[in-house]
Amino acid sequence: MYIVSACLAGIKCRYDGKDNGDEKIIQLVKEGKAIPVCPEVFGGLPIPRVPCEIVLDDKGNIKVINKEGADCTENFKEGAKKTLVIAEILGVDTAILKSKSPSCGCGKIYDGTFSGKLVEGDGVAAKFLTENGIKVYNEDNYK
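-> structure tokens emitted (143 positions)
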């Protein structure tokens, strides 16, 4: 059993109200082998929403800021916590999450300038899940 980013399962929950449907992931959900989650929605953010990216503040702390300058860090943290609770309840030890996302990205995320530039790093939920023993993959590198 996996938890998977809901947008990969074909659910229209991206920041722009669209999805990133991936046929292999959709099939896992249909077969009952995966449960879709959206940490950003779990954290109380609407669909659609202003896009967010991760930045470092003056003290080196991670912040999630939307394109209009609003701090959405607490929403992202809350969504990550709720996602972990679901994984724990289901006994899931593996997640397949959307690459590049400020919540789900693993390995590379956008750099915080809203210019499309990628940097090494993990999204808030991906990092939190990893820190709590969940193996995290993206749609391109899962088994």
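DSSP finds four helices and eight strands in the chain.
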